[in-house]
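Postdoc handover notes: sequence design on the structure in folder B. Input tokens:
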């Protein structure tokens, strides 16, 4: 069977990388200072980073349902099935949304919950593509990924202002931590 691999843009995969690896990306919307953008379609990474560095308030949300349906319908004209690997189900509702959507695709859309995010999600999408190229079936890949995948990451923010603007830390706590030169170590484990 001819199978497409799709992830979402939380994987940090550029349009060029996606094309190189034969992976498709459902781009997520960003709201920056109240203005909506679709990553890499309406705003470049450089513009996004510049806005962040200059104090913009950034919020993210799931890929728009209409965009997902359009992407899946277009891919299913060329492919027999799709494996979709979104950001961790514990960090976003994308997994649940696409699982509901998959019911209308007669087993042609398989959703994996690796509980990954960022670079590990990108690497997993590339590995899934490689597994397909080596003859693994979609259900075998789902079983392997969901039973064996594990992600643990330590994140050390460069600046507490991003956490404060994103609502992850209260302004008073950020001010106190900055004054005392306390830098938190954030952990992402098991989704």
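Designed sequence:
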């Amino acid at each position: 069977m001819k199978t497409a691999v799709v992830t979402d843009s939380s994987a940090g995969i550029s349009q060029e990388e996606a094309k190189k690896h034969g992976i498709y990306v459902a781009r997520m919307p960003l709201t920056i200072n109240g203005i909506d953008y679709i990553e890499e379609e309406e705003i470049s990474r450089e513009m996004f980073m510049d806005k962040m560095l200059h104090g913009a308030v950034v919020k993210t949300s799931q890929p728009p349902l209409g965009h997902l349906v359009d992407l899946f319908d277009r891919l299913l004209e060329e492919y027999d099935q799709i494996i979709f690997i979104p950001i961790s189900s514990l960090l976003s509702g994308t997994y649940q949304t696409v699982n509901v959507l998959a019911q209308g695709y007669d087993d042609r859309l398989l959703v994996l919950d690796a509980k990954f995010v960022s670079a590990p999600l990108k690497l997993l999408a590339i590995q899934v593509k490689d597994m397909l190229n080596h003859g693994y079936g979609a259900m075998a890949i789902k079983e392997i990924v969901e039973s064996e995948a594990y992600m643990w990451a330590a994140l050390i923010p460069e600046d507490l202002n991003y956490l404060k603007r994103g609502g992850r830390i209260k302004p008073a706590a950020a001010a106190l931590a900055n004054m005392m030169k306390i830098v938190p170590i954030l952990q992402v484990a098991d989704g």
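Context for whoever picks this up: The radius of gyration is 18 Å. Don't rerun without checking with the PI first.
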